[in-house]
Sequence to fold (935 residues):
Amino acid sequence: MNFRMIFKTLGFLLIVEAACMLPSVFVSLIYRQDDFSAFIITIVILLAFGVALYSIKPRNLNIYSRDGFAIVSIGWIMVSLFGALPFIFSGAIPSFTDAFFECVSGFSTTGASILNEVESLPKGILFWRSSTHWLGGMGVLVLTLAVLPKAGASTYQIMRAESPGPNPDKLVPKIAQSARILYAIYMALTGITIVMLIVSGMPLFDSFIHGMGAAGTGGFSNMNRSIGEYNNLFSEIVITVAQLVFGVNFTLYYYLLKGNVKSIFKDEEFRFYIGTYVVAVLIITINITGPIFGSAWESLRYATFQASTIMSTTGYSTTDFNLWPTLSKAILVLLMFIGSCAGSTAGGLKCIRIIVLSKTIKREIRKVIHPRSVYAVKSGGKSLDESVLTGVSAFFFTYVAIFTIACIIIAFNGKDLITTFTSVVASISNIGPGLGAVGPYGSYADFSTLSKYVLSFLMLFGRLEIFPMLILFTPSFWSRANI
Amino acid sequence: MKVIIIGDGKVGYSLAESLSIEGHDVTIIDKNAEALKKASEYLDVMCIKGNGVSAQTLIEAGVRKTDILIAVTSSDEMNMVCCLAGKKLGAARTIARIRDPEYANELALLRDELELDLVINPEQAAAREIARLLRFTTAIDVEVFARGRVELVEIRVTSGMPIAGMKLMNISKHFSQDILIGAVQRESEVIIPDGSFEIRENDLIYILGRSSSVFNFCKVMGKYPQKIKNVMVAGGGRIAYYLAKSLKNSDMKVKIIESNMERCVELSELLPECLIIKGDGTDELLLHSENLREMDAFVALTGHDEENLVASLIAKQCNVKKVIAKTTRINFPEVIKNMGIDCVVNPKVVTSNYIIKYVRGLENAQGNPVETLYRIIEGQVEAIEFTVKNRSPYLDVPLKDLTLAKGSLVAVIVRKEEIIIPHGNDAIKLGDRVIIITQNRQLSDLNEIFIN
Fold:
């Protein structure tokens, strides 16, 4: 392990985080709600640690795979710890556990909150809470790579560990340039979303909060009743579309920019994503017309919004879907597991893994019928490497295993099965609201301290796709000789 | 610049490494996903799995906007087709590696018909390098500049040499004004020396100057150049063939040992003036019976690095004056030199130096083009030859009034037929060829080494 290089990079990461706090400082200056000093103290602490770490002189500049993983996992924990400071200093969330939970929930774009009442919080704090979504969506380390003065070849390890999906692609040969392109697309799309929300009649500050929340597919709102508060059809449509858009692999937008429209519709994952969404909306609409809503149009309005917000793992709400029939809730839970596309800002298992897993199953069945058959699993016309297939299967099993263990730990809280089960899904898939007590109008406030830490780590497991976090718990990862 | 490299073998990888470090956008295409894995993990390049001949793969790699396409797959024909396809799809320039001697004779035709901009034959380039080393035996390494008029020679300082323990400024007083010591390697440290630098025993020094001056200097140093008459070559591959051909004119007698009978017959047809022996080049008995002791030089060119090293060690024990080993895979020149083998030639390094020189030259086609480029001391120092074609403020200014970037040195100025080892009062003029020694890699323009 090249600890000097790891800590040097982490130092730079903290400096970047300090810079990312500046817009919130600006907001708190405008609204003057005595949260200004909390940000200034945090920024001073961040800069002190950041500059101290960044001035480390590494003996060896190379970062290998495990160093990259270490930077990502330790980096995310550090960023969350320091990001929680403004909540504590401003008195918005006095408990450290709660502040850490809230901040991890922000950076991992989960949007699960321990706050029952958000409308009274200072605006600067609310803005910072939502900025963590935006930063966590595309990845704080990808941002660091985009601005890092000298991103060498080895930094690919960092990008690989942070980007979601089984097989992240570089857009262009240079890492730093790829990161810049990703952020440019991300910023442009976020800008469009915010402008559209303003046009739809949402107040300016709220448009920024919800625009960043939708872009990072996070789900923090500045309203207790989330988007339902506005009861504005136009805003709902904007957010529905935005959530879906941010759930698509960003590589496709790069192709679109280069004028390659066809490749988007040819993309297997994109078709699966949209197809699943459409089918889910249809089933839910039919299911809730009658018992919940009077007209089919009204059902469609809520079904499209809820399916989009759950599938993109955002977690806004316009209505309490806790009250919906079991079939609709089952569909929503299924969507929680599937999630969106690889290379997007969303969480979940990712459509591409579902596709690959089903194809592997198909191959196994064929092998039973024709034991000597040779059958290449293909995706997008290219046959997938056997290592990708085993990687996806291993990922799926680890996901289920961690899910089960977490369910048992959370069960100690003595809550009902639905609450226990969906709080774990909603955390590991980075959605936020689940069903039961953690439903759209509930909160995570009543869980025990241990459960809150377990859920916080689940969110990081989900955001970083398990393995970068899992290796932190592997003793041989830490030993110098690594045997 | 945007560069596509087809074929992620040894040469492809080292090219991608150098070019990406110099800041070019490099895309590698290879059919083998295993090979690409290493590149994608350690280099800042884009890797595409696919066939470099297929138009679809090339377009995916962005061939339309590519400045240079380099085809270095293992097959000559594939390289040619790749370059042809690339050119038709819009690549500005194409470079192909073509190594089969059968094509070597038709290179001019191929070049025109396929619109290739550069053809590189690694074996031929390596053979030329070996031939040069055989002609100048005192040196560990020889590089030439200004069409062979200036030489850069690497020698090791031994206790008997009068310059050991002497400061550089005294060397010009005592010996010759016409040579310059451009770089010194002491253990693993590399120094671009100034006048107060003191040479010590066991340093590796790099001497620059007119060929005859360097020759005389070496003579004074007690390193008498020995004329080589008999050369034994172990391994009858392509390098051996090219080497034998290029030594034909310099009255050296060549004896080639090759284990494959068919290849022996083939070689005897191609090289009637050489003696071809069927046998194992690492077989000590055979080597002795073929009078290894009487040989002036031994060159190990089999396909296995280990065999080459072992055969070279046997030769060294028999007191052969000049022993040269070829390595392709093993890349520890220091370790090998410590074993006592005089020189190591690596076709991979020769090839990638050659291509990088071409790319650098293109990069500033408008500025001062790079004529020659050598990497010495494991690539830590570069010796670059520029031609001054444009007016700029540093021209006609005495060198003592200019500030040079750290670790850089104006080593030689070639003005028409005159070769100047510059001192403070000399100035660079328009049309000069200037040889720069620098530790700052990525230098592509003469202006970059002068600080205002």
Observations:
- Chain B is about 30% helix and 25% strand.
- The mean pLDDT of chain B is 82.
- The longest strand of chain B covers residues 179-186.
- The two ends of chain B are 27 Å apart (CA to CA).
